[in-house]
Amino acid sequence: MLNGFINLRKSSGGSSNRALFSVKKVLRMRGIDTKVGHLGTLDPLASGVLPIALGRATRLFDFSLAKTKTYLAAFKFGYTCETLDICSELIPFDGEKVTKEKIERVLPTFIGRQNQIPPQYSAKNIQGERAYKKARKGEVFELPAKEIEIFACNLLEQTEEDTFTFQIVCSSGTYIRSVARDLGKALGTEAVMSSLCRTASGKFTLENSISEEELLSRADSFEEYILPMDFLLSDLPSVTLSEQETFRIENGIAMPVPCEVPCKIYTRNGVLLGLGDKNENGLFVKTRLL
């Protein structure tokens, strides 16, 4: 089985599933049958880092959710719309005029843990149906607020009279369109997102990414773009077990091994067995990767 990650660079204008299809196409071209999934959806308007997990690396989805995300976003003030971005009809809003100075006074209030209401046009599940599908049908519903955290929100430049760009560093699950909406309201007006690029998702960055076009054109040698499972886990401490300890822990017996958790568990031969956690009996394999 092929295990690891491809750090795909998604282009603007297509869905994350369409980008995922590019990887599946390459695998089919090479006759490789393995499980595939992306680690975090990007809106169609958005571009940037979209890590794709292969094989047993798909088991690290929950672990990847804890990773910090970095975005380069443009917000257009004085407009509102259904989708909170320029993908739907923009409606002018007669609110306060936004300036660089006003934005810089308000931005510090957006730093830290907070409850954020997701956009109506989102992939949130409402009674078994995606929110955006209900919104398209004109149904009226409310989405519960979710706790997110914004670590940094920096104003970069003013590109047009009503448009400003920002660098936002935040927790997984943060909707940048909602940040635009909430920032607009804090400034006495409305705002929509006009562009978005995810520049980093944990250790996955634009610098170590490959575009969909590049991947398809280099299908014969795509293995060289596969990052090992260790890549995502490089910040974790590790423990190497003896042959006997490996046998016992593989059979569900927790081992009294001194280590910090979560940690990477390796066999005596240096093979990554999985992610470890502890209970009252000691270390056990929480996520098996071997």
Spell out the blueprint of helices and strands.
Elements: E1 4-10, H1 16-29, E2 36-38, E3 47-54, H2 61-65, E4 69-77, E5 79-80, E6 91-92, H3 100-106, E7 112-116, E8 125-126, E9 129-130, H4 131-136, E10 146-160, E11 163-170, H5 176-186, E12 191-201, E13 204-205, E14 210-211, H6 212-217, E15 226-227, H7 229-233, E16 238-240, H8 243-250, E17 263-266, E18 272-279, E19 282-288
Parallel strand pairs: 1-14, 3-12, 16-17
Antiparallel strand pairs: 1-3, 1-15, 2-3, 4-11, 4-12, 5-6, 7-10, 8-9, 10-11, 12-13, 17-18, 18-19
Describe the structure.
Strands 1, 2, 3, 4, 7, 10, 11, 12, 13, 14 and 15 form an eleven-stranded mixed β-sheet that branches. A four-stranded mixed β-sheet has the order 16-17-18-19, covered by helices on one side. Strands 5-6 form a two-stranded antiparallel sheet. The protein has helices at 16-29, 61-65, 100-106, 131-136, 176-186, 212-217, 229-233, 243-250, and strands at residues 4-10, 36-38, 47-54, 69-77, 79-80, 91-92, 112-116, 125-126, 129-130, 146-160, 163-170, 191-201, 204-205, 210-211, 226-227, 238-240, 263-266, 272-279, 282-288. The chain is globular. The chain is an alpha+beta fold and 290 residues long. The protein has three domains: 4-66 and 205-228, Pseudouridine synthase, CATH 3.30.2350; 69-201, Pseudouridine synthase; 236-288, Archaeosine Trna-guanine Transglycosylase, Chain: A, domain 4 (Roll), CATH 2.30.130. The mean pLDDT is 89. β17 (263-266) and β18 (272-279) form a beta hairpin. Helix content is 21%, strand content 35%.
